[in-house]
């Protein structure tokens, strides 16, 4: 097996548990509870049922005929944009809310940057009848008013965080503080394959469903495995989710695409693996964007979900050992793929996903005719139309 963490939660040199002493007990309790439910039949049935009837799984694997003709290859799209809420994030929030319920905790807390994880958490908490509080920087609240309204509509309480840079990293600090204080009845729900062990493992397990379905679907459609699978990488959850089932299939190339933003040379990007260095952030040792003194640098991408200065440890390790190939795509190149997929297939992808779509189009041109490629369309782009309208100057 490529990717089993050791007892300290490390994947190669990455991962681990870098948390204050007071949280160690909570993390251990979480790990035990997760191991228990992960082999529990009734938990699996409950999760599978809610994923089917509420989230809309399985999502289709769609053969993108027009896009394929355009680049002389066979491109399939895994339609996570069709999951309830418009992205893969709900796979994880439903899984973790159900885990919290099994642990007897009825209060969910989360932090959010752009608000997408906050909304997915609020949905899952609502459907399971749990209390939900989301920490969000006041700067982000100002920029993402619509998501704040959505969270409130879904019954969540949004707690503004006015310290530091008033963005995601300050919201994370506040969530940690809350968790330490209220760990008796509170579950802290992390939104990607990041954070201290066991979070990267838990989130990957809940996102694995993407790859499991994809494998069955591509074998049904083509009677063989794809030549390449391509996914965008913010924290790494949609990428690991679709990659994991194929790790042992050496003939399948796995490619993760980070945000090159305005270009790596400008420093305005979100490419933690392609351009980052090793360090500790959010309780994990991983690849990060930081200066020579270890101060975290501001990440940048016009895709809100890729605007994060770190990446999950398991993915960092898979890249380091060469099983996953990493590359990055700029805002500008992404914009062209966003438009192409909309025009060619009638699918408006999330700006995050459009990074992977762009890479797929270029990869198809580089490879032999009829190369079989699967792209993970992690979300839909309705949320991004304002950004794109401004970028296109229309
Ligand atoms: C949040 C988000 C991402 C980035 O998160 P990962 O954990 O890297 O998957 C990508 N796409 C969409 C649509 C998102 O909402």
Give a description of the structure.
The chain is α/β, with parallel strands linked by helices. Helices cover 45% and strands 18% of the residues. The protein has helices at 21-38, 41-55, 65-70, 89-102, 116-127, 138-143, 145-153, 168-182, 199-207, 209-222, 237-243, 272-275, 313-320, 331-345, 351-366, 385-392; strands at 10-11, 14-15, 61-63, 74-79, 107-112, 131-137, 157-161, 186-188, 228-232, 253-261, 277-281, 284-288, 324-330, 372-377. The strands form 4 sheets. The protein has a 6-stranded mixed β-sheet with strand order 3-4-14-9-10-13, with helices on both faces. The chain is globular. The termini are far apart. It binds pyridoxal-5'-phosphate. Pyridoxal-5'-phosphate binds next to α11 and α15.
The profile of the biggest β sheet is: 6 strands, mixed
Strand order of the largest sheet: 3-4-14-9-10-13
Give the percentage of residues in beta strands: 15-25%
First-residue to last-residue Cα separation: 50 Å
Bound molecules: pyridoxal-5'-phosphate
* Count of distinct strands: 14
Count of alpha and pi helical runs: 16
- The structural class is alpha/beta
Mean model confidence by pLDDT: 96
Helix content: 40-55%
Uncertain runs: none
The whole-angstrom Rg is 19 Å
Q: In sequence order, what are the helices and strands, one letter per element?
A: EEHHEHEHEHEHHEHEHHEHEHEEHEHHEH
Give the overall silhouette.
Answer: globular
């Amino acid at each position: 097996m490529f990717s089993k963490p050791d007892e300290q939660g490390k994947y190669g040199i990455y991962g681990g548990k870098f948390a204050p002493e007071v949280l160690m007990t909570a993390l251990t309790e979480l790990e035990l509870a997760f191991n228990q439910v992960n082999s529990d039949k009734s938990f699996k049935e409950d999760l599978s049922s809610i994923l089917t009837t509420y989230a809309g799984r399985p999502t289709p694997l769609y053969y993108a005929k027009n896009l394929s003709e355009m680049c002389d290859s066979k491109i399939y799209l895994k339609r996570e944009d069709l999951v309830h809420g418009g992205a893969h994030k709900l796979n994880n929030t439903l899984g973790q809310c159900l885990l919290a319920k099994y642990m007897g905790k009825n209060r969910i807390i989360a932090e959010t940057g752009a608000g997408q994880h906050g909304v997915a958490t609020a949905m899952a908490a609502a459907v399971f009848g749990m209390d939900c509080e989301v920490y969000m920087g006041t700067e982000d609240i100002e920029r993402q008013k619509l998501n704040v309204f959505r969270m409130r509509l879904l019954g969540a309480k949004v707690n503004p965080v006015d310290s530091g840079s008033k963005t995601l990293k300050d919201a994370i600090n506040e969530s940690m503080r809350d968790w330490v204080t209220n760990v008796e009845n509170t579950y802290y729900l992390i939104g990607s394959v990041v954070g201290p062990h066991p979070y990267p493992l838990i989130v990957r397990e809940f996102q694995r469903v993407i790859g499991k379905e994809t494998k069955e679907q591509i074998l049904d459609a083509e009677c063989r495995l794809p030549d390449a699978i391509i996914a965008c990488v913010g924290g790494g959850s949609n990428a690991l989710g679709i990659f994991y089932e194929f790790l042992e299939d050496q003939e399948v190339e796995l490619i993760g695409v980070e945000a090159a933003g305005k270009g790596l040379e400008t420093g305005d990007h979100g490419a933690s693996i392609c351009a980052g260095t090793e360090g500790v952030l959010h309780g994990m040792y991983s690849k990060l964007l930081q200066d020579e003194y270890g101060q975290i640098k501001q990440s940048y991408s016009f895709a809100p979900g890729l605007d994060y200065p770190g990446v999950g440890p398991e993915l960092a390790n898979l890249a380091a050992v060469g099983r996953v190939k990493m590359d990055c795509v700029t805002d500008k190149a992404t914009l062209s793929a966003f438009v192409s997929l909309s025009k060619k297939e009638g699918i408006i992808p999330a700006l995050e996903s459009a990074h992977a779509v762009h890479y797929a189009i270029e990869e198809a041109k580089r490879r032999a005719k009829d190369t079989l490629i699967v792209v993970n369309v992690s979300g839909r782009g309705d949320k991004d139309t304002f950004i794109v309208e401004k970028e296109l100057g229309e």
